[in-house]
Specification:
Layout (H helix, E strand, L loop, with lengths): L3 E6 L4 H10 L5 E7 L5 H8 L3 E4 L5 H8 L4 E4 L3 H9 L2 H9 L4 H20 L2 H4 L4 E6 L3 H4 L8 H16 L1 H4 L2 E6 L1 E2 L12 E2 L5 E6 L7 E5 L1 H14 L6 E4 L2 E4 H12 L3 E6 L1 H6 L6 H14 L8 E2 L11 H7 L3 H4 L4
Parallel strand pairs: 1-2, 1-4, 2-3, 4-5, 5-6, 6-11, 7-10, 9-13, 11-14
Antiparallel strand pairs: 8-9, 10-12
Helix pairs in contact: 1-11, 3-6, 4-6, 6-9, 12-15
Length: 341
C-alpha cells in the first residue's frame, strides 16, 4: 500500500511549515505543499528535502481543486495579515474597498473569508472527496456573533469563523470530514507587538502589560505556533475522528504566572502591570489597536474560544506540546536586556 498524501496550505508560513516538519517524520505520509510562489527560498528548501511543491492561489478554486486531487488529508489555513498588507499597499484594492463601503480591515477580512470558502469549495469537490479522509481547518472564535455584536473589530477571528460556519451549513459532505484547531496567542509575535513583550521598569526589573478589564477568564492559551501546530494537526489526522476540535495551546496560563515563569527562567524579577485601555493601546501598533482591545476584552469576558464545549485542550487529547519554559529558555531576549548589563 502506497503512502498517504497530506496537502498542506501555506507550507512556507508559520503553521504550515510546522505541520510539514511533523509529517516529514512519517514515512507512510507524503507531503504536498501549496504555495503561491514555488520559487521562494522557503519553498525551494522544502523541494530540496523531497517535498512536492505545487503552485496554487487561494483565489482560484480550480487550481486548488487540482492541488487537492488524491489527498487523504488537507490542512487548510488562511492568512488575514497578508490580505491586510495587500489592501494597505494597493490603491486599486483600496478603491474596491471604498466602493463596497468597507474599511481596509473589513475588506481584508472579506478577502480572507472568500479565500477560505474557495479552499472549502475545492476540497468539497466530488473528485477530491473520493480519497479525502480528514480536513483540518485552522480557525478562531466568532467574536462578533458570540458577543452578540458587542465586539466588532476582531476581523481575523470572524473571517475564519465565518468560513467554518459556511462549511457546516453549505458543504455538509466536507463538514463530515472536518476537524479544527483554534490557534492561541502566538508567542513568536512578542518582537512585533510590544504588548506581548517584557518591558523594563525603573528598578532594574521587567513587567508585562495586561489590559485591566473585568471578567472571569484570566487564563489564556499561549502557543509556540512554529513548533506545536504540527502536533495538533498530527493528532487530528492520525489519532482522532473527524469532528474533533482542539485548542491550539502550548500552555494555558494567567499573565501573572507567565511573568513569574519568564523571570524565573531568566533569573530576573518580572511582574504584571494592569493598565487602562489608553495605556494598553500605546503598546500596540496603531493599525491593530481596535482589534487588540476588542479581543482582550472578549477573552476575559467570554473565554478565548467563546465557551465552546466541543473544543478540547491538548492535554485532553493526549497531545504533547512545547512548554513555555522551553520557549523562554531558547528565545533570544538580547534586545530586551540591552543596556541592562
Amino acid at each position: 500500500m502506497g503512502a498517504k498524501i497530506i496537502v498542506i496550505l501555506g507550507i512556507t508560513g508559520t503553521q504550515g511549515s510546522s505541520v510539514a516538519t511533523t509529517f516529514f517524520k512519517h514515512n507512510n505520509w507524503r507531503i504536498r505543499g501549496i504555495t503561491r510562489n514555488p520559487d521562494s527560498e522557503k519553498a525551494k528548501a522544502w523541494t530540496h528535502k523531497g517535498v512536492e511543491i505545487v503552485q496554487a492561489d487561494q483565489n482560484d478554486v480550480e487550481l486548488m481543486r487540482r492541488a487537492f486531487k488524491g489527498a487523504n488529508a488537507i490542512f487548510a489555513v488562511t492568512d488575514y495579515a497578508s490580505n491586510y498588507a495587500n489592501v494597505s499597499g494597493d490603491e486599486a484594492l483600496q478603491q474596491k474597498a471604498e466602493a463596497a463601503g468597507r474599511s481596509i480591515d473589513e475588506y481584508a477580512a472579506d478577502l480572507e473569508q472568500a479565500q477560505g470558502i474557495n479552499i472549502a469549495t475545492a476540497a468539497a469537490d466530488a473528485g477530491v472527496l473520493t480519497t479525502l479522509e480528514k480536513f483540518v481547518f485552522s480557525t478562531l472564535a466568532g467574536v462578533k456573533n458570540i458577543s452578540s455584536g458587542k465586539y466588532t473589530h476582531a476581523y481575523e477571528f470572524d473571517s475564519k469563523a465565518n468560513v467554518e460556519e459556511y462549511i457546516r451549513e453549505n458543504l455538509p459532505s466536507l463538514g463530515e470530514k472536518m476537524s479544527t484547531v483554534i490557534m492561541g496567542i502566538y508567542q513568536e509575535t512578542w518582537t512585533d507587538i510590544p504588548a506581548f513583550a517584557p518591558q523594563k521598569d525603573d528598578e532594574g526589573g521587567f513587567f508585562f502589560v495586561r489590559l485591566k478589564w473585568p471578567g472571569p477568564h484570566q487564563d489564556h492559551p499561549q502557543v509556540i505556533a512554529s513548533r506545536d501546530t504540527g502536533a495538533f494537526v498530527e493528532a487530528l489526522v492520525l489519532h482522532h475522528p473527524p469532528g474533533t476540535h482542539v485548542l491550539g495551546a502550548s500552555e494555558i496560563i494567567d499573565k501573572s504566572d507567565y511573568a513569574a515563569l519568564w523571570g524565573r527562567v531568566l533569573g530576573v524579577r518580572a511582574s504584571v502591570k494592569d493598565v487602562s485601555e489608553e495605556v494598553f493601546a500605546s503598546y500596540v501598533p496603531v493599525e491593530i489597536r481596535a482589534t487588540m482591545l476588542d479581543l482582550f476584552k472578549f477573552f476575559v469576558e467570554y473565554g478565548y474560544a467563546g465557551g465552546n464545549p466541543m473544543i478540547k485542550t491538548p492535554a485532553e487529547l493526549g497531545i504533547q506540546t512545547t512548554t513555555l519554559e522551553e520557549f523562554v529558555r531558547d528565545e533570544d531576549w538580547s534586545s530586551v536586556f540591552k543596556g541592562q548589563e
